[in-house]
Write a structure and sequence with these properties.
83 residues; mainly beta; Fructose-1,6-Bisphosphatase, Chain A, domain 1; 6 strands
Length: 83
């Protein structure tokens, strides 16, 4: 589950915007499409969560429940580097 563009009202004033996400296990059967039940799980059941910030640099921050990890996009490499 994610919010594709959080803060989109800030675009016209050149402020940072971002994308937030949450990852859960799928609880419906493997052969079934995802359902609302898959999305509406308790926060304590998350596998991971994080956000991307788009501004003068692009950053990704996430956690899997054991610390927080931050990465900055290096445009010359096209890769996120631990920052």
């Amino acid at each position: 589950m994610f919010d594709p563009l959080d803060g989109s009202s800030n675009i016209d004033v050149n402020a940072c915007i971002g994308t937030i996400f949450s990852i859960h296990h799928k609880i419906t059967k493997d052969h079934e499409d995802g359902s609302l039940e898959d999305c509406l799980q308790k926060g304590s059941d998350q596998i991971a969560a994080g956000y991307f910030i788009y501004g003068s640099s692009t950053m990704m921050v996430y956690t899997t429940g054991n610390g927080v990890h931050g990465f900055t996009l290096d445009p010359s490499l096209g890769e996120f580097l631990l920052s």
